[in-house]
Amino acid sequence: MKDEGRPAKLKDIAERLGISVATVSRALQANPAISRQTRELVMQTARDMNYTKNIIADSLRSGSLPVIGVIVPHGVTHFYSSVLDGIEHIAASAGYAVVNINSHERYVEEYANVRDLANLHVAGIIASVTQETADFSHFGSLMAGGIPVVFVARDIPMQTYSSVTADGAEAARRATHHLIKQGCRRIAILCGPSRLKMVADRKHGYIEALREYGLPLRPCYVAYSDIDSASAVDATDTLLDLNECPDGIIALNDTLLFSAMKTIKRRGLSMPSDIALIGFSDAEYAADVCPTLSTIEDRSRLMGESAAQILLNHIRGDMTPVRKVISTVQRIRQSSRRK
What we know:
Number of domains: 3
Strand content: 15-25%
Mean pLDDT: 92
Low-confidence stretches: none
CATH topology of the largest domain: Rossmann fold
Shape: elongated
Number of strands: 12
Distance between the termini: 75 Å
Oligomer: single chain
């Protein structure tokens, strides 16, 4: 029987419910082998008895902390804050805490992030690679050390890892179709760095749509930019300085989209009559600016939830690689609607 004043232990919960300590332990870890009814009963009893999990003791037994590490380029953006919200929701329901670290789009910081999380003995890592990352060996060392990795939003060109991404190629194809149907014939695409697989996928969808409508691919209409406002403004200016200025632009993320809008306005051009603009963004305020912006929504929170669920399955022993693709949602607003 539990002594008054002493913190409750697993044994105390087990004695009250008449079940084994092992069953209590698995239930508190949200192990699917334990029925939902039993898990809920154990959770409620643990709360009633003011049970506090001994994280240090658990880590000594398992070799890892009940913590998920997350590495993203910029956690302050709407997209990645939404991804993180989804991760935290699923992680918390399974009894895991989340540690988020920003790489600031720099490979050297990402490399250090991976090392630091490995040294913390986290249970697993969810990562979105930087625009500089071309060498993925630091992630390979995690897998070799028994720390599973899932990539979100930006994956790597290796089939041995799990990932959750948007249907970028198809989404870019639909966006290009939309601009063509609005009468655009000189359609440009404002890309991030060419080394990112996400950029290559979306550019492929854009090219396919041009081919389907018999429109030429003009290399000068494919503008690459670092993923920051200053670089995106410069890239948009370069497009607008062409002798045959684009009459439609697709921007591949929200930083590029809002930078393009700002540049088009600064140049005294009108949207959509001079240039029809659409881009990838989950930012709710895209519907509050003037003109309202046409967007392709990545459903970032769902991406985070999906990545967390896949990682939890890996942590529990199922290491089968999963390549999940989340369908996007196209929202047509004033910036691209001519008809």
